[in-house]
Specification:
Layout lengths: L19 H5 L10 E6 L5 E6 L15 E7 L2 E7 L35 H7 L5 H10 L8 H12 L4 H17 L19 H18 L3 H14 L4 H13 L5 H10 L5 H13 L6 H14 L5 H13 L3 H14 L5 H91 L3 H38 L1
Antiparallel strand pairs: 1-2, 2-3, 3-4
Helix pairs in contact: 3-4, 3-5, 4-6, 5-6, 6-7, 6-8, 7-8, 8-9, 8-10, 10-11, 10-12, 11-12, 12-13, 12-14, 13-14, 14-15
Length: about 475
Amino acid sequence: MTVLRAACPSAAPAVTGPQAACAAGVRDEGRGGAQRRRLDTHKNNSAVVEVAPWKSCGACGGPREPGLLRVVVGHALVYGLVAKRGSQRHTMPESSVTEENGPQVGKPKTPQVEIGDIDQILLDAQKNQRASLIKDYLAKNVGDDSLDWIGELCVKAVKYGLSIQEIRSVVTDLAWISREKGERLPSEAVPIPVSAHQHYDLYRLVRAYALGQRLRFDFKFDSLRDVSQGWLNDFDSDALILSFVAFAALGLRQPHGLDLYQRALDAPDADRRSRHVCLSGMWLAYQVEGQAEKMLELSGQMMAKGEIDENVFFRRASALRKLGKYEQALEEIDHAIHMLGIGNNAVHQDYVRERESIIVSMQMRQYAESLAKSIGNEVVEIAEKRIEEASRSLTHKIETAQRVVSESLLKIVEILGLFVTLSGFLVGSGVVVFKATTFSERAIVMTLFVVGSLIFFTLLRLVTGFRRRERRERRIK
């Protein structure tokens, strides 16, 4: 059952019944989000209707599932509730009057609703809104494996003059939706639709964009490298194609990846999408010297150009973590989580994992510093003990050496003294012997000589034996 309620004095009264939507010309024309449609009232007043998606009745086109109908007539608003078919009427309460919908005055008349197509909507829309409208319009067809959205995008892009940057943006968003829905890859084996034959070159470029983004999202470096090399023959100056080639090279750790990365950034038509691909590639290129610094440099340039989104802050958080700037990294990742829209659960998990990595890295750094300090103190303590022991040992050895030297010198002096005494004794004895004239005198002199020699050797033995015994006793102690 459909109810249309007008909020302007000139509007027609409410119309109810299963045929109200048919009579008004309201039809569900898509599976996407709320759609804007041009309509004319009986007084040719301009109005717009927004219809939330529902399934239409096969007989009259009336809705079977709930949906919201919002009609703008002139400067007033018309609200209605599309409910399941039945006997119950669903209308807005009379008390729900706001400054937006205005007071209910008189008995409104039913506006003559006539839904226009997407082309009329695009013609009436501002130029900078057309890309978003085309994306929303095509999103409902993504996921059915026909890949017709690629050809239809080419037709709409040419017809409404979308720039190459707008085309890249639309393709990237639709490629992400295609990946989430598990749609097949848009390879070159997919036949070109008849509607896109006259835009053959553009179709091939858009298809390359879509395939490149799909492969990039899944980190299929080998496949992306293989297909992107062929794209360079036809689109060698396209910034997004160059960024795909650089992404694959950096992911495969190829030596020329950094040169391709710089070439993509320096391309004349480089934009937000191509720079994001380069930033993602550098995020993966752990082998590049100064990786974190290059990520911060590129993300800073993007922010200066107004290309700010949650992924930029996510990459910056990763770079700051690698540089050990954990507090700044936490600020960046928290900002990324704050900017992330509701419902992006998979992306939110990636951000949360990065935040956990930052915290774990910070805790590991703190633990390593604490451990190093503790080990350092132990090492210093052990070293001091070893030095003290070595000092005591060295002192003992020095004292022992000094004692040995002094004893040796004393022994030498004693022995020399004995030898001098012996020499004097011998010289004196010799003189006496030579002066002796009788046998008895000579016998006495020889006896004295022998006795003196025995006494000398006895004294020498006593001196050396005493020193040896003294050393042995000291060693025992």
